[in-house]
Amino acid sequence: MAMPSAPRLTQTKCSDCPIRHRAVCAQCEPAELEDLERIKSYRTYTPGETIAWAGERLSLVGSVVQGIALLSSTLPDGRRQMVGLLFPSDFLGRPGRDTISHDVTAATQVTFCMFQKVEFERLIARTPKIQRRLLEMTFDELDAARDWMLLLGRKTAREKIASLFVIMARRDSALNSRPADQGLRFPLYITREAMADYLGLTIETVSRQISALKREGLFRLEENRVVHIADFARLLEEAGDDSDGGVLI
Amino acid sequence: MAMPSAPRLTQTKCSDCPIRHRAVCAQCEPAELEDLERIKSYRTYTPGETIAWAGERLSLVGSVVQGIALLSSTLPDGRRQMVGLLFPSDFLGRPGRDTISHDVTAATQVTFCMFQKVEFERLIARTPKIQRRLLEMTFDELDAARDWMLLLGRKTAREKIASLFVIMARRDSALNSRPADQGLRFPLYITREAMADYLGLTIETVSRQISALKREGLFRLEENRVVHIADFARLLEEAGDDSDGGVLI
DNA sequence: GCAGCAGTTTGATCCTGATCAAGGAAGGCC
DNA sequence: GGCCTTCCTTGATCAGGATCAAACTGCTGC
Q1: How many Å from the CA of A214 to C1' of D11?
Q2: Same structural domain, B63 and B147
Q3: What number is the ipTM of this complex?
Q4: What pLDDT is stored for residue B30 in this prediction?
Q5: What residues have CB less than 8 Å from A45, skipping those under 6 apart?
Q6: Which among A135, A145, A200 has CB closest to B153?
Q7: Do B132 and B196 lie in a common domain?
Q8: What pLDDT, on a 0 to 100 scale, did the predictor assign at position A240?
Q9: Within a domain: residue B249?
Q10: Is B233 on the interface with A (CB under 8 A)?
């Protein structure tokens, strides 16, 4: 394991945990935060590792602290569609259900901050604010899923790639608390295969479209980072995105 | 207005309201139910009518009592994707947001049971059970959206049609409290255009695929009802559905 | 150094679903 | 009845993305 990353993972402090300051508990009282503290634990997965299979019993819920996890559905014949892309602070799991309905895999090295589901359920039953926060987060996920449906059903391959880049740029800048509209440099954390599964395309089409956009000078790639987008507004346009580009997700 | 339907709409009783016995308040105490009673009102829309535009301020939330409503997203150039199909008991609106992010239209004559959003928010703030119920419903919607993403991204036109029919059969049988696995007869409440928007296809492809499945003897159409599916299991298979067919949605 | 491998790119060809176009069916209205 | 309009079906052709195939890149291990 590489030296620089290991300590950061094992030393993750409560103050680094997105559960505390970004996700579930953004407006909690100190007492409620302590309740959360007591029942949490961390777990790290390696890139490519399966975190859970669809249909599996899952007695944990939690959220991503660091890294990227993927949610996907698979047809009996193996065709696969990604249905969720979990960045730090995103929540995984369903209070009130004992099985998970999608495959969960680690795209990068990923660390979760997890709670025993029964304990978490007890907690939200007596802490409406946490439940409320969870409802807000689920609404956000539903909105994202619906935008994603528009992408899958109606956008061309070229537009899909542009949209993916815009999404990645925004999520990355949210992660680093930078404004998104410059979009000068952000990493493509995921493989071509994951992009294809995200976009409902084949890896060949993903590769070809990225090459085409590069040829047209929209950006360069440097060690899997998208660099120097000449005209971020034009990429937004290609993505068919009519929201104003400055707003973070 | 046709005689048989008008009285049923205007006379909708609390006991007929899905908010009460199916949706938001499935496990509420009588006192909580009375709180809901006091702040609700009904509104009916005609087929094709726009209920709300994307981006509009919306001070109401509510759920469908009767009929079907459609949620859809539109690209700047007019390409449209349906992102939600609201049957009776389905909830519309977001406590905590003042704008709606999708177009809402009436597919059939549709009646909503609505609450002033501010009042509903006050109610859920002091009634965690209702909030909990809303969270469960939102989880269900998110699951449905993710299955839908698999359909849009990875299924063929033929499989899309089969999936649509399976979904319609299940939702219709849930509506009428019948087991879904026979699927002998159910209406296609929506037009070919709505089907195309649901499935990410054109109306021509929808029409052709339905004709092809008919030719193969999977079903007949009688006044826009799907009749006598020879082998519901085969349709499930075409839909790539590996859940057991007897379970209602 | 080089073999082996996973991930990626590029090329050639095919096929599914889109597009363009024309007709048919059913209902409403005069 | 006849003429709209709306919705649906069918046909001919096209094109975007899938498929099949091969080569390239960067890494790891020896």
Answers
A1: 40
A2: yes
A3: 0.88
A4: 64
A5: A51, A67, A69, A106, A109, A110, A111, A112
A6: A200
A7: no
A8: 74
A9: no
A10: no
